[in-house]
Specification:
The complex is a heterodimer of chains A (111) and B (114). Chain A is an all-beta fold and 111 residues long. Chain A is built from no helices and eleven strands. Chain B has 114 residues and is an all-beta fold. The chains are: A mainly beta (111), B mainly beta (114). Chains A and B meet through β5 of A and β4, β5, β9 and β10 of B.
């Protein structure tokens, strides 16, 4: 079993929809949780960064962490065609610098 | 402009022919790492470096070598490439601690080993 599980999709939604992306994990030592966005033929770019449980909002993006369930989510409101990309969750333990990634979810927002 | 650069971006080679993929960052970051990305497997760390002359294995180090002689450079070396090393490779660097840490990725190197 992988340490981090992520539904690979593909996920296709109409413009303006609310998108929910999720990851589950098994390592209870993970404390820092990240979401990366990766456009085709590009490197991943950091989108959201949260620590421990709770919510963080940045514009149209909301990241949620539920450590008791070992479950993290990324919500995208009012989705746009420019949000079409692969979204990767990543996490790491408190003292470590090494990241463990999910396999990524491919999202397409249709105009 | 803050950036991580990799060269070459695309490479086709044959089994056993040594190759080096260069990585350079201009942000004075201490931490650098190499990942490979394969369909369905996501990004897996190959090697990382906490600082000059300090390197350690990641999750999939077999068949790879690295060196960190200067802070800005972190080359990835494949001494004897094999077809199972065909992949998309990313270099990354980061600074800060804990919540302030920000990791920057390079544009990727697509490698095909025949």
């Amino acid at each position: 079993q992988k340490e981090v599980e992520q539904d690979p999709g593909p996920l296709s939604v109409p413009e303006g929809a609310i998108v929910s992306l999720n990851c589950t994990y098994s390592n209870s030592a993970f404390q820092y949780f990240m979401w990366y966005r990766q456009y085709s033929r590009k490197g991943p770019e950091l989108l959201m960064y949260t620590y421990s449980s709770g919510n963080k909002e940045d514009g149209r993006f909301t990241a949620q962490v539920d450590k008791s369930s070992k479950y993290i989510s990324l919500f995208i409101r009012d989705s746009q065609p420019s949000d079409s990309a692969t979204y990767l969750c990543a996490m790491r333990a408190g003292s470590a610098r090494q990241l463990t990634f999910g396999s990524g979810t491919q999202l397409t927002v249709l105009p | 402009e803050a950036q991580v650069t990799q060269n070459p971006r695309y490479l086709i080679t044959v089994t056993g022919k040594k190759l080096t993929v260069t990585c350079s960052q201009n942000m004075n970051h201490e931490y650098m790492s190499w990942y490979r990305q394969d369909p369905g497997l996501g990004l897996r760390q190959i090697y990382y470096s906490m600082n000059v002359e300090v390197t350690d294995k990641g999750d999939v180090p077999e068949g790879y070598k690295v060196s960190r002689k200067e802070k800005r450079n972190f080359p990835l070396i494949l001494e004897s490439p094999s077809p199972n090393q065909t992949s998309l490779y990313f270099c990354a660097s980061s600074s800060g601690q804990g919540y302030q840490e920000t990791q920057y990725f390079g544009p990727g190197t697509r490698l095909l080993v025949l």
